[in-house]
Amino acid sequence: MSIESFLPAGMTIADAIVILSSLSALAVVTLVWYALLPADPGVRRAKVLAAQRDLMRSGAIAPTRRKERKKSLTMMQMLVNQFKLARSQQAKKVSEKMLQCGWRSQEAVVRYFFFKMTLPFAFGIFAVLCTYVVNVWQLEDHMKAIVCIGAIAAGLYGPDIIIKNAAQKRQEAIRKALPDTLDLMVICAEAGLSLDATMSRVSQEMEKTTPEIADELALTGMELGFLPDRRQALRNMANRSSLSVMKGLVNTLMQSERYGTPLAGSLRVMAAESRNERMMKAEEKAARLPAMMTVPMIIFILPPLFVVLLGPAGISTYDNFIKM
Question: Fewest CB within 10 angstroms: 15, 35, 154, 227, which?
Answer without folding.
Answer: 35
